[in-house]
Amino acid sequence: MFDLGGFGAALVAGTWVTLKISLAGLVYGLLFGLIGAVSKLSRFSAIRYPADILTTIIRGIPELVLVLAVYFGGSVIINDIAAKLGYTHYIEINKFAAGVLAVGTTFGAYATEVFRGAILAVPKGQIEAARAFGMGGFLIFRRIVLPQVWRVALPGLGNLFLVLQKNTALVSVIGLHDLMRNASAAAQFTKRPFTFYMAASLIYLAVTTMTMLGTQYGEQRARRGVKGA
Fold it and tell me: Is residue 1 a part of any domain in this protein?
């Protein structure tokens, strides 16, 4: 057993913050990725090209830089706009929201490609048959494309979610009291870095292991009724 010197509650609190960031970033990232994939497959170049450029830029920026840019850069932009409107008080971006936006955007940029590949994997014959039955574009997407997209995309999305969970450690640099920041504070206070960083690593390992088990279960459920699955 680790002797946490009274900092066990801080690690638990930090773990809860980490889990909330992970789940909120997942929801936002899935929405981002799905919209991005549909945009990149659009026949309109005015929609397709901006989506290509945006996802390429996001995937090319290190996650740490994006976290710092969203929090500090966002604060500068918001305060500049507020100053032009006559508001003189300093406005600080919510750290939790900034963390979710940063990790979720990174997840979403990569999820865009996963969704795009999954959409392209749907047999075109099924879409043509749906059109022959008089289905509109939205109905085809909701009833024909989307159910099959999840089955194809789930393994890739599961891997991306594992990366997202580990990337939440980066939000500690903006002062959010997640697992990593609380472990670092405890290590500095007690002068026992190995104990607390090892405890944090075991917690991350436990969380990601549960995610992997959940993803495997989800994949098995999604393959039900599929020939050869």
Answer: no
Which positions ≥6 away from 204 have C-beta within 8 Å? 165, 166, 169, 179
Q: Domain of 195: which CATH number?
A: 1.10.3720.10
Say if 98 falls within a structural domain: yes
**Is residue 229 a part of any domain in this protein?**
no
Name the band, by pLDDT with cuts 50, 70 and 90, for residue 229.
Answer: low
Rounded distance, CA 150 to CA 111, Å? 12
pTM of the model: 0.89
> Which range has the worst mean pLDDT, 12-26, 99-113, 146-160?
146-160
Question: 137 in a domain, yes or no?
Answer: yes
Structural domain boundaries, residue 36: 8-222
Cα 77 vs. chain centroid, distance in angstroms? 24
Cα-only R_g, the chain:
21
Query: Is 105 exposed, middle or buried (CB count within 10 Å of its CB: 0-12, 13-18, 19+)?
Result: buried
- CA-wise closest residue to 63 among 104, 91, 28: 104
Helix (H) or strand (E) holding 27: helix 8-40
